[in-house]
C-alpha cells in the first residue's frame, strides 16, 4: 500500500513539470538521429567526438530518434522513477522496517523535487537512479541466494548511462569485500562480477574504437581547475535550500555509515565535489543517490522511540524544497511569461506567443531553420534544441561537442577563437551572456555582420554579405521534418512561420532589434563591467598574418577600443616587459603557486581587454584569486598580443 501511495505522490509531483525539458537532452537526440540515419554515433557527420555523457541512453533512444524522442525519453524516465519507488519500498520491507520508516523514505523520495523533476526532462537521470538503486537494494539479497540476479546487470549498465554510474559497482564491490561476515566469493558474487566486467569491457572497447578515448569530451569542457572548490559550493547550494532537512539527512547518513545506502550517498557527494558540481537545476548530479539518502532517513527514524513523530518532523523540514527556484519560476512562467533563467527548461508549447518565445531559444532556432543554407556551419551556446531542429553542421562555442573549443589539445584562447571563426558561417548569441562578453571584441574587429536580433538574441554572419535566401520549398521540407521530430513544440513551428513573415514582434512581446543598431558595431551592447572581452579591439587576423602590414615601428590604425590596447609597438613592448618582470618577482618572492596565478592574471591582461600598463595591479589581484594556469599559456598569450601590434619585432616575454 505504501508503495502505491508513493507512486501516486511521485506522479502528482512530476505532473508539475510535465511541460518542461532539458536543452541538453536534444544533444543526445541528435547523436541518436545521426546513428539511425547511418552517420554513426556523431553530433556532426564525420566528427567522432563523444560530446555526451549518456551513451547508453542515446543507443536506447535511437529507434525513435526521428519521431518525438522527447516523449519517449520522458516516458521512460517516469517509468524509471516509479521503479525507484518500488525498489525502495521492497528494500524497506526486506530490512523489516515498519510503516513510519517506510513512510519517511517514500516522503523523502517523492516530495523533494529532485527525482520527480528529472523524471521527465528527457535525460538519463531517472534511469541512472533506477539502476543504481537496483544495485544496492538487490545485491545484499542476491549474495544470500535470494531473488533473481539483477544487481550485476544493473551495476554493469550504470556506466553506460553516465560515467559516474561506475561508482555503483565500486561501492557495492567494496562493501562486499569489507563485509564482516558471510560468503566473499560465492557463485552469485562471481556471476555478478562477470556481468559487470563484460559490460564494462564492451563500453571501454566501444569508446576506444569509435571515439578514441575513454573520457568523454564533456569532461574536458566542463570540469574546471580547482574543481573541488566549485563542488563544495555546489553541495552547499543544494543543501542551503532546506538547511534543517539537510542537517537531519546528513546525520542519518553518518549514523548509518555501516550500511550500503550510506556508502552510496557519500560516494555521490564525493563525486559531485570532485567534478566541480553542475550548472543544472535540482541537484541533477545527486539524483542517482537520492533513494539511498531516503533509505538512510528511514534507518535514522528506526533508531528513535517516537517514530511517527520523527517521520513527521523529517517531512516538515522538507517544506522549503517545495519552493525551489524551478517550481517558483514555473508558477511565474504560467502567470506572466518566462524569465531568462527558464530559457532551456520551459517547453515551447506552453510559451504561447509571450516573452517565453524568446526565452526558450525559439528565435535563433527558427531563424536558422528559415534562413540558413544547407551547407552553412552554425553556432550557438545552447546547442541542444538548436542543433536538433537544424541539420547543418553545428559548432559548440563552449566545447561540449568540439575538442578544439574544449581545449583538449592545450589550445589557448586565441587559438580557440581562430578555429571557431574559421569554421562558423552563422552565429547566434545572447548579447547579455558570458560568451558575448568574452568575444564581442573579436566579432567587431574581424568584421562579423549582425543580421538580425530579437531582444537579446542576435544572429551574426562571418563576412560582408548575408546568406542567400533559402527556397520556400526547402523551408517547407524543414518544417515537415520538425513536425515529425518534435510534435510537442507547436510554438517553434509558429516561430518559423512568423520569421518568414518578418513579424516585428518576433512572435511575442519581444521586439526586433533596430537595423541601424545591428549595422553599427559601435552601438552593439557592451559588457556591463567594462570591455571584458577576450580581445576587445583586436585587429583582423589578415593584418596579423601578413596582409598589408605597416613598417616596423609604425603605429597601427586605432582599434575599436583604443583605450583597451597600447597605441604603439614601444608601449606594447614596455608593458609586456613590466608585466613579466612582475610575474618573475612574484615567482621569486612567493613561490611557484603564486607565480602561476600571477601568470594567469597577466594572460587576462593581455587577452582580456585590460590595458597592459595596468598589468602590475592585475598581478596583485591574481594572488587573491587562486586561479592557476601554466606559465607557458600566459606567456604565449602575451607574445601573440605584442606580435599583433609589433609583428616584425615581437619580444619574448621575460
Low-confidence stretches: 331-359, 528-567, 607-634, 647-654
The percent of residues in helical segments reads: 55-70%
- The first-to-last residue Cα distance is 74 Å
How is the main sheet built? Answer: 5 strands, mixed
- Class computed from helices, strands and strand pairing: mainly alpha
Strand order of the largest sheet: 2-1-3-5-4
- As a whole number of angstroms, the C-alpha radius of gyration is 27 Å
Q: Please indicate the percent range of residues in DSSP E strands (runs of 2 or more).
A: under 5%
Give the overall form: globular
Average the pLDDT over all residues and give the rounded result.
77
Number of helices: 30
Total beta-strand segments:
5
List the helices and strands and how they pair.
Layout lengths: L1 H14 L9 H12 L18 H7 L7 H26 L4 H13 L2 H6 L5 H19 L7 H11 L4 H12 L9 H25 L5 H6 L4 H14 L2 H13 L4 H15 L15 H12 L5 H10 L8 H12 L19 H4 L2 H10 L5 E3 L3 H7 L3 E3 L17 H11 L2 E5 L3 H12 L3 E6 L2 E5 L10 H14 L4 H11 L14 H5 L21 H4 L24 H22 L1 H16 L7 H11 L5 H15 L9
Helix pairs in contact: 1-4, 1-5, 2-3, 2-20, 4-5, 4-7, 4-15, 5-15, 5-16, 7-8, 7-9, 8-9, 8-10, 9-14, 12-14, 13-15, 14-15, 19-20, 19-24, 27-28, 27-30, 28-29, 28-30
Amino acid at each position: 500500500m505504501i508503495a502505491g501511495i508513493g507512486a501516486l505522490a511521485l506522479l502528482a509531483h512530476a505532473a508539475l513539470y510535465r511541460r518542461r525539458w532539458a536543452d541538453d537532452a536534444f544533444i543526445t537526440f541528435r547523436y541518436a538521429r545521426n546513428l539511425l540515419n547511418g552517420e554513426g554515433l556523431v553530433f556532426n557527420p564525420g566528427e567522432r567526438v563523444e560530446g555526451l555523457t549518456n551513451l547508453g541512453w542515446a543507443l536506447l533512444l535511437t529507434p525513435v530518434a526521428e519521431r518525438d524522442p522527447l516523449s519517449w525519453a520522458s516516458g521512460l524516465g517516469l517509468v524509471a522513477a516509479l521503479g525507484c519507488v518500488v525498489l525502495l519500498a521492497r528494500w524497506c520491507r526486506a530490512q523489516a522496517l515498519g510503516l513510519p520508516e517506510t513512510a519517511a523514505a517514500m516522503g523523502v523520495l517523492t516530495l523533494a523535487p529532485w527525482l520527480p523533476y528529472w523524471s521527465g526532462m528527457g535525460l538519463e537521470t531517472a534511469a541512472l537512479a533506477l539502476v543504481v538503486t537496483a544495485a544496492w537494494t538487490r545485491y545484499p539479497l542476491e549474495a544470500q541466494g535470494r531473488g533473481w540476479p539483477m544487481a550485476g546487470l544493473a551495476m554493469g549498465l550504470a556506466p553506460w548511462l553516465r560515467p559516474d554510474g561506475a561508482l555503483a559497482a565500486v561501492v557495492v564491490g567494496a562493501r562486499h569485500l569489507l563485509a564482516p561476515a558471510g560468503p566473499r566469493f560465492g557463485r552469485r558474487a562471481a556471476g555478478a562480477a562477470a556481468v559487470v566486467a563484460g559490460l564494462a569491457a564492451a563500453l571501454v572497447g566501444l569508446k576506444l574504437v569509435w571515439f578514441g578515448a575513454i573520457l568523454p569530451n564533456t569532461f574536458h569542457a566542463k570540469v574546471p581547475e580547482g574543481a573541488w572548490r566549485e563542488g563544495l559550493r555546489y553541495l552547499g547550494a543544494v543543501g542551503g535550500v532546506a538547511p534543517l532537512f539537510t542537517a537531519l539527512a546528513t546525520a542519518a547518513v553518518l549514523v548509518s555509515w555501516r550500511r550500503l545506502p550510506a556508502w552510496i550517498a557519500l560516494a555521490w557527494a564525493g563525486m559531485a565535489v570532485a567534478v566541480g558540481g553542475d550548472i543544472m537545476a535540482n541537484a541533477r548530479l545527486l539524483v542517482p543517490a537520492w533513494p539511498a539518502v531516503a533509505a538512510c532517513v528511514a534507518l535514522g527514524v528506526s533508531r528513535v522511540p517516537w517514530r511517527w513523530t520523527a517521520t513527521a518532523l523529517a517531512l516538515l523540514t522538507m517544506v522549503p524544497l517545495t519552493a525551489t527556484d524551478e517550481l517558483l519560476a514555473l508558477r511565474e512562467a504560467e502567470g506572466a511569461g518566462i524569465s531568462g533563467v527558464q530559457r532551456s527548461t520551459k517547453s515551447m508549447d506552453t510559451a504561447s506567443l509571450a516573452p517565453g518565445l524568446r526565452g526558450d531559444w525559439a528565435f535563433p532556432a527558427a531563424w536558422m531553420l528559415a534562413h540558413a543554407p544547407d551547407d552553412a556551419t552554425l553556432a550557438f551556446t545552447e546547442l541542444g534544441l538548436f542543433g536538433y531542429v537544424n541539420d547543418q553542421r553545428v559548432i559548440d562555442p563552449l566545447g561540449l561537442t568540439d575538442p578544439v573549443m574544449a581545449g583538449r589539445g592545450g589550445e589557448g584562447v586565441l587559438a580557440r577563437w581562430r578555429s571557431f571563426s574559421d569554421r562558423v558561417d552563422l552565429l547566434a548569441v545572447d548579447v547579455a551572456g558570458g560568451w558575448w562578453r568574452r568575444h564581442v571584441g573579436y566579432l567587431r574587429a574581424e568584421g562579423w555582420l549582425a543580421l538580425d536580433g530579437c531582444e537579446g538574441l542576435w544572429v551574426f554572419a562571418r563576412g560582408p554579405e548575408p546568406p542567400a535566401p533559402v527556397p520556400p520549398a526547402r523551408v517547407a521540407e524543414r518544417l515537415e521534418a520538425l513536425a515529425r521530430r518534435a510534435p510537442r513544440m507547436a510554438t517553434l513551428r509558429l516561430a518559423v512561420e512568423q520569421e518568414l513573415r518578418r513579424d516585428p514582434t518576433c512572435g511575442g512581446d519581444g521586439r526586433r532589434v533596430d537595423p541601424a543598431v545591428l549595422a553599427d558595431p559601435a552601438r552593439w551592447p557592451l559588457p556591463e563591467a567594462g570591455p571584458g572581452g577576450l580581445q576587445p579591439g583586436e585587429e583582423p587576423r589578415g593584418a596579423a598574418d601578413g596582409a598589408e602590414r605597416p613598417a616596423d615601428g609604425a603605429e597601427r590604425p586605432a582599434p575599436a577600443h583604443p583605450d583597451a590596447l597600447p597605441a604603439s609597438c614601444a608601449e606594447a613592448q614596455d608593458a609586456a616587459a613590466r608585466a613579466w618582470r612582475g610575474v618573475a618577482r612574484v615567482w621569486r618572492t612567493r613561490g611557484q603557486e603564486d607565480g602561476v596565478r600571477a601568470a594567469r592574471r597577466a594572460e587576462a591582461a593581455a587577452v582580456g581587454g585590460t590595458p597592459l600598463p595596468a598589468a602590475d595591479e592585475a598581478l596583485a589581484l591574481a594572488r587573491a584569486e587562486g586561479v592557476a594556469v601554466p606559465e607557458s599559456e600566459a606567456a604565449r598569450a602575451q607574445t601573440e598580443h605584442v606580435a599583433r601590434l609589433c609583428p616584425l619585432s615581437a619580444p619574448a616575454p621575460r
